[in-house]
Design goal:
Blueprint lengths: L28 E6 L14 H9 L5 E2 L4 E2 L5 E3 L10 H16 L4 E6 L5 H11 L3 E6 L19 H6 L4 E6 L4 H9 L5 E2 L10 H6 L4 E7 L21 H14 L1 E8 L8 H18 L2
Parallel strand pairs: 1-4, 1-5, 5-10, 6-7, 6-9, 7-8, 9-10
Antiparallel strand pairs: 2-3
């Protein structure tokens, strides 16, 4: 057949982008989808999160009113989905690390779409090797500081305990944790920015920014949002943060610090309306705008 190229739909890239803005060689940003949820224990289905976010992103307005620019023009390339490795959570983290490292070392701004939160450790490891004076900003309903959970140290409930072995972390939006985690926080004199602190100036964006190193990796568990706007997560917690509250914080961090990459994890599409996937897609797009454009 001749001249049939235009008869096929293009690959489903984030935001529906095509050449030249989706080309890997020139893109500043790469999207890494990781459909994996091996250690979740209540509502499973976060493995469907990356595709749901990419599906929803097809309907984004590419012009951002707040930034008064078309963010996509920095170039956003969507990588193929990583093949899940079900034999070992630790080995899956290493798979993410190996792939992410390749692009981070090329100075690509790498965005991981999960999948469960355990995957973030691979991204953090790869980023830590690239950047000095490095820390993690965790937006989450849960502390994720257990040393071990359900027989593995690489559970989604342990991800920040493992991250803390690599670099400092700042936790924001926390409103649920175990007694073990509370004891760990006390012993290590750690003070998260609990959700209760947002009623006062104790959790202002300026205070949060001042707790961070110069180079910041942002890990966003979508259950940091209140379930009224984000019910589609595996472990929802009442009393969470709101859309503009999160955007105000992230924009402030981007103004004062160097955001080197981020992830969005724990979207469980079957637990909520499609608006949840669209919220995640728009959040990813806006954070790319804050950090890169």
């Amino acid at each position: 057949m001749k001249n049939t190229k235009n008869l096929f739909l293009p690959p489903q890239n984030f935001a529906g982008l095509t050449s030249p803005y989706a080309n890997l060689e020139t893109a500043k940003v790469v999207i890494l989808p990781v459909p994996y949820d091996s250690t979740t224990e209540w509502h499973s289905g976060t493995r469907e999160g990356p595709q749901a976010i990419i599906d929803a992103s097809q309907y984004l307005e590419l012009y951002d009113m707040e930034l008064s620019q078309e963010i996509y023009k920095v170039g956003i390339h969507t990588l193929p989905k990583i093949q899940p490795l079900l034999s070992s959570p630790e080995e899956m983290v290493q798979r993410v690390y190996q792939i992410a490292k390749e692009f981070i070392q090329q100075a690509k701004f790498t965005v991981m779409l999960g999948g469960e939160h355990s995957l973030s450790l691979g991204m953090i490891q790869a980023s830590k090797e690239k950047y000095q004076d490095f820390c993690v900003l965790q937006l989450d309903a849960h502390a994720d500081l257990r040393d071990e959970y359900l027989g593995t140290k690489y559970s989604h409930a342990c991800v920040m305990r493992r991250a803390l072995e690599l670099c400092p972390i700042t936790q924001v939006g926390i409103r649920s944790l175990s007694w073990e985690e509370q004891q760990f926080l006390n012993q290590n004199k750690m003070q998260p920015f609990y959700i209760s602190a947002f009623a006062s100036n104790l959790a202002s964006p300026q205070r949060i920014a001042s707790s961070l190193s110069d180079n910041v990796y942002v890990s966003i568990d979508l259950d940091v949002f209140d379930p009224s706007i984000m019910p589609a997560v595996g472990t929802p917690e009442p009393g969470g943060m709101q859309w503009h509250e999160i955007l105000h914080l992230l924009k402030s961090i981007a103004l004062h610090k160097h955001i080197v990459g981020f992830d969005l994890v724990e979207l469980c599409p079957k637990e909520g309306p499609v608006s949840c996937a669209f919220l995640a897609a728009k959040l990813a797009y806006k954070l790319i705008g804050y950090a890169v454009s």
